[in-house]
Specification:
Layout lengths: L1 H14 L3 H23 L8 H24 L3 H15 L8 H15 L7 H11 L6 H12 L1
Length: about 150
């Protein structure tokens, strides 16, 4: 399970005295705990699945990329470097992402399987892609590919 891998990696980072890795992994675990608590308040006692954890990790990477843009505009190279390091650490827990060609092929395959022919079916296609490729596909880019294919 991904959560166990994160906990083991935290212990390794602490033993190696890698402060940036340890703090980044702590941030990940805190985000997961927040999501667990939110789920409990809605009546679910289950912890996040690996797919949901992958979604959290992808969101954290996106947030850091946005922060890098802002810090670069502000001339804060020290913060750009810190965020880039955090991205490296977080991406270490994500599966290998699909290439652009693989993403295009996956979209075409799902569209063919669902016999989707109009933009109205975009939600079905995106839902199926999210089931099949959690953590491996950039769904904002996939959305554009689906729109183009169905539009």
């Amino acid at each position: 399970m991904l959560r166990q891998e994160l906990n083991a990696s935290l212990k390794e980072a602490m033993k190696a005295k890698d402060k940036s890795a340890a703090s980044t992994i702590r941030l990940i675990l805190a985000a997961l705990k927040d999501r667990d608590i939110a789920a409990r308040t809605q009546g679910s006692d289950e912890k996040l699945s690996d797919d949901q954890i992958l979604e959290v990790l992808q969101k954290m990477v996106r947030q850091r990329r946005e922060a890098i843009e802002m810090y670069a505009k502000g001339g804060r190279q020290d913060l750009v470097d810190r965020e880039a390091r955090e991205i490296e650490i977080i991406e270490g827990f994500l599966p290998k992402p699909l290439s652009e060609a693989e993403s295009n092929d996956a979209v075409r395959e799902v569209i063919d399987e669902l016999n989707a022919s109009s933009i109205k079916e975009m939600g079905q296609v995106m839902g199926e892609l999210k089931k099949r490729y959690p953590g491996r596909m950039d769904f904002s880019k996939a959305s554009a590919i689906v729109k183009q294919a169905l539009g």
